[in-house]
Amino acid sequence: MMSRDLRSMPHGIEIYADIAIVGGGPAGIAIARELADTRIRVLVIESGGSDYEAEIQTLNSVESIGQPSVSPNAVPEGRGYSGRLAWLNDVPAFELRNRMLGGSSHTWIGKCAAFDDVDFRSRPWLPLSGWPIERSQLLPALDRAAKLLNLGPNRYDESLFALLHSTPDDLGLDRRLLRPFFWQFSHMRSQRAVPTRFGRLALDITATNIDFLTHATVTRINIDSHGRSVTSLDLKSAAGRGASVHANTIVLCGGGIENARLLLASNSVLPAGIGNGYDVVGRYLCDHPRTSLCRFTGRDIDPIAQHFNFYGLSHDGRTQFYLRGLSLSPEIQAQEGLTNCAAYPVQIYAQDDPWMALWRLTKGASKTFKGDLLAVAKSADMVTSGLYNRLVRKRGLPHRSTELRFDVMAEQQLNAESRITLTERRDKFGQPLPRINWKIGTCEIGSVKRLALVISDEFARVGLAKPKLPDWIAGGESDAPVFMDMAHPSCTTRMGTDPRTSVVDINAMVHGTEGLFIAGSSVFPTPGHANPTLMLLALSIRLADHLKQRHAATQSHRPHVSEPDLSLQQG
């Protein structure tokens, strides 16, 4: 990887590239990888460096005036993280973003799933639903994204059953109400316990046509005097160095907040901002409202964990594991006007859980060595059965737990008033801070409640334990439900064919602005309930294919250059 640091470069330097990618997170790095070893000169611009820097992270500050709000008697939910990642629960809403090479992949757990067929459909009860591209058009890019993430086959519904080493039991749940849903967990190829870190993938890029520029925050997108095409970018570093990047093609990969913020703040030619002729930029802000749906304790835990756990299959010489959960069926969504949502199991392990004790012992992380050793010794049967489960049946390990709960992430109905605007407050570079007015509607709240009640009733009907439901679902309290964002902001520069309700076209180019493209979850037409990384990578790979074709078309009459000059030039 060829990397340069703006802090050490001359002030006022001018940099030239064919394609400038703004943001070195998963979307930006995926596009750069796809463009590697081509004749296209690519510059990836990252606001931070290769490591965490508190000073740069302050640029993520927002002014939040909407959800999540908590009533005086309610306990904040957090984002559901535990153990070493528990600190992520305390990061303020919409500030859990990483300004460093690798972006959000530094604080994710690798959880992946593709969007359902229903997510792509126009659903009359959900205004503006329906994608302008078919799911089938994304399947090749989805498979390439899965390979990048070291995942198994892209199967997340009951079609997965036929591939699993041992098929889940048929519990007799009513498929007209509930459907099985699965998630995979991405990992580094060399370290299965470590989620894919895109900073490391960036280091693997050795192509001479790819350059990285770090500690370079883009402060403005420049367009021509008619506002019809992109021309350059203005950059600043924390050390006070400024620079300009000239490129015929610019791709914004800054995430659901920053992509919209940068368009709105680039208002020197178009007062409302770029791509905002219809006041759409920043609207339709969605995330995945998360809460704990239902809980099991005591003797009820093991029978539930037996069915809702990890299931494995063999793929490319490795075993890939999928986590089993439940989602609302498309039928009940249509009949009752609900959004798509799914619940996944989370176990809280006991201190004497032998598998966690064994992990602490092998990692040298044990604080009570004798206690952990005793926990393993006293649970020989559990360890033996667990090894059989894992190695022979390709199932998840049995754990000793104090609680098993189902958490939920829900699709949001699009709301034009759920949005990002700009404040009068400025960051250290003089840029206006984003004002976040996230709105959680009655439709998604009702969908979450319905899922909880259906799970409770269906479990009881088929002979499983009935869970304890939160008071706001069970009906004992009048307090509003407590949700938290999952750091999955989306739809703020959504894809569509109508500029009155979308920001980019089906090729992810900003309506009316030649050469300006956007990648990432901000272009999702609707947010689905699934974690966004796999889908945004598929769209990014699709965009990279389009950029290759576009560049080839514009360069077809130019003389051949065997080795493009990628040197950074001072103006």
TrEMBL record:
Transmembrane segments: none annotated. Signal peptide: none annotated. Its cofactor is FAD. Pfam families: GMC_oxred_C, GMC_oxred_N. Residues 416-539 form the Glucose-methanol-choline oxidoreductase C-terminal domain. Residues 97-289 form the Glucose-methanol-choline oxidoreductase N-terminal domain. This is Choline dehydrogenase. It comes from Rhizobium miluonense.
